[in-house]
Amino acid sequence: MGNLMGSWRYKEPSTVEECDSTWETDSESDEHQPGGEEEDSGISESMSPADAVRGADCKEHGFGDMMESSTRMKRSFYAAKDLYKYRHSYPNYKEPRQPSEYRNLRFYLNKIPLVPDGIYIEEILTKWRGDYEKLEHNHTYIQWLFPLREQGLNFYAQELTQDEIKEFQSTRDAKRRFLLAYTIMLDFFGIKLLDKNGNVARALNWQDRFQHLNESQHNYLRITRILKSLGELGFESFKLPLVHLLLEEALVEGTLPNMRHSALEYFIYTLRQHAQRRALLRFAQCHYQPPENFIWGPPKKKRIPASGSTVMKAGKNEVVERSVGKARSPREGRNNLEREADDVDERKSGEWKTAKGSMVLQEVRGRVHLEEYIETIPL
């Protein structure tokens, strides 16, 4: 009966908005919910005060085409739906009728090799670190190192099951080897793991590896898979530090400019907690160029027009403009909007500062209270 009810409650999303509940609520009330479960929600499409200010600036400086081009940008429905299913634990997933062989767990216990290469996990952990040519050109190992409940390109790799996930998370040796495999891939990307909380930073080889990562974009698919697998196997908290570092390199430092679209369309949406996604998106919005082309939120909240104002509709977006006649001057009307936009932006920045402060606190605590299974990892 439970399965029937579960199937009845699931609604296949048909739009990007139905896949994304990141901005469903703009409060912290959902931050402490176990697992960060989501519900379907739409996204308001009206323009925010900050967007209205940017629109006024564009018109004043003759950049109307920039606003028109931003309306043509669209998010990928394929990406949104894929990450929606992941965050909701694959609502239509059916466990195999045959008993699971736990091949992913047995591989991590060094009992069976990966197929088709015939390589054991211990060989990868001891001999592959720093072998960037092998890590780059071999395309069969990644599905074994970072298993998911979905089929990858290596059809010899077996999908995870819920029972196997539980068994994996309770097996110390499997988790220890999984973290070692994670550090090998981070080193391949030019990143190092700092502590058991998942905090990361640039590695010594970051310049060469970032240049390679910026040019070898097929590795972005690998990063998405790694992030998903972290969440499946009990390391959900490791996602936020990694995604933030990649966003900072892509948008602020400019070392990974080719990655910014993948980071915004895929990496962020592997995080299951609403508040974490909001914090990352607000951070990204502060640094995205051109700012008027940022299409990932926050939502376009509708405003109630004041008396004497006129509402102009452009496509689906509603731009609220104050009547010039009610203001002492056109500049005064614009200044009112700017003050409102500043208030909104100030409220937005608080959430990311809170998240970042929490990350720093976790880093300090993590270095004092290391868990047993990570003590053997050469950090």
Automatic annotation (TrEMBL):
Tree of life domain: Eukaryota
Ranges for region Disordered: 1-51, 320-352
Pfam hit, one: OGFr_N
Transmembrane residue ranges: none
One GO CC annotation: membrane
InterPro entries: OGF_rcpt (IPR006757), OGFr (IPR039574)
Gene Ontology molecular functions: opioid growth factor receptor activity
Residue ranges occupied by any Opioid growth factor receptor (OGFr) conserved domain in the UniProt entry: 98-302
Family: Belongs to the opioid growth factor receptor family.
Protein name: Opioid growth factor receptor-like protein 1
